[in-house]
Specification:
The chain folds into two domains: 2-79 and 351-377, no CATH class; 83-344, Rossmann fold (3-Layer(aba) Sandwich), CATH 3.40.50.410. Helices cover 37% and strands 17% of the residues. The protein is built from ten helices and 13 strands. It has helices at residues 14-33, 39-46, 56-72, 107-120, 147-155, 165-177, 246-255, 309-319, 329-342, 353-377, and strands at residues 2-3, 75-81, 87-93, 127-133, 137-144, 231-236, 259-265, 272-275, 287-290, 298-299, 302-303, 324-326, 346-351. The longest helix is centred in the last third of the chain and has 25 residues, at 353-377. The radius of gyration is 31 Å and the shape is elongated. The two termini are 43 Å apart. The model is unreliable at 193-222 and 293-301 (pLDDT under 50).
Amino acid sequence: MSFGLPVLLFTVLFAPLLAAVYVWQLRRRQRQAVRYSNVALLRSVAGGSRSWRRHVPVALVLAALGLLGLASARPQVRAEVPVSSATIILALDVSGSMCATDVPPNRLAAAQDAVRAFIEGQDDETKVGLVVFSGFAQLAVAPTSDRGELLEAIDAVTTGRGTTIGAAILRSIDAIAELDPNVAPADVVDEPTTDGPGLAPPPVPTPTATGGAGGGGSDAGGGKPDVAPEIIVLLTDGANTRGVTPAQAAEQAAERGVRVYPIGFGTTNPTQMACTRDQYGGFQQPRTRDFSGAGGGSIGGRNFLVVDEAALRFVADKTGGEYFAAIDADGLTKVLADLPKHVTVSEQDIDLSAGVAALAALVLFAGVGVGIRGTRRA
């Protein structure tokens, strides 16, 4: 057990100090009673075989004072917090490549269906926030337990140009920092680098088949940060094309103990993109593009319609999360449904001051009640 305000622990000493004064007063009365020759009076002062009962109210009041002193020092214990008691930030890729039809009717529509099912399946204690990203990342819905607001936001997403995976992670960190004072906001990257097609992330140890759960989260030789109960679930179908790199963002998440669970969505051979009017925001005509020819949608040797698994695995390994791959709608739905099984519990400080204060109040009321009852008997 630890204390948030240990300097106030001295207030606990008031209870034994008052107890000592009370005992001193009792002994003083007993010494004075010896002066009298009336034996009946002496017995009434010294008390009978059940004289201890008259001390119970005082003992209960002193115990309540001790508990109040303990509560003022804000006692805390380290406890494991399950994912149901935490916050999930869902970062959803809404770049133009999400209109690829390799997952019918297209990736975005399939992802919307899976995310809806995921949100509806959360319990009332879980808060979910929504970050959407394409050419830039923005917080669409702050973490909330209002499922209606989240579902409306999912239905209203529209596509944009570009994919900023790194910026999405940093924006998700900021959303967590607004709720959790133990998580610092993301640092501003003065000169963000471009992680466009063809630029691989820094060399990393060979990841496990599941993406390195329980891996990174601290630098070698440094102290391991406390694992935050909040997590980031990143759903993307492509590669970072601009701004802060996923590796840079993963470093910041790891420093704050924030785990990232990336989900790579889509097949490795998309042939066509077809967006509906709603997915374009209603301002443009639906568009169909064919990428079945040589080169397809590749730029610089990398197909921007295909998941950059190396970068996502690095993010998962660095932050202590886990990477998942989903090539179709059913696979994505299953990954999201099984996600809580893969998220390990984390430890955080639980403040016990309110509970201790409530216990003190109960003990105090009990002392008063026993005292009143004893007075009536007398």
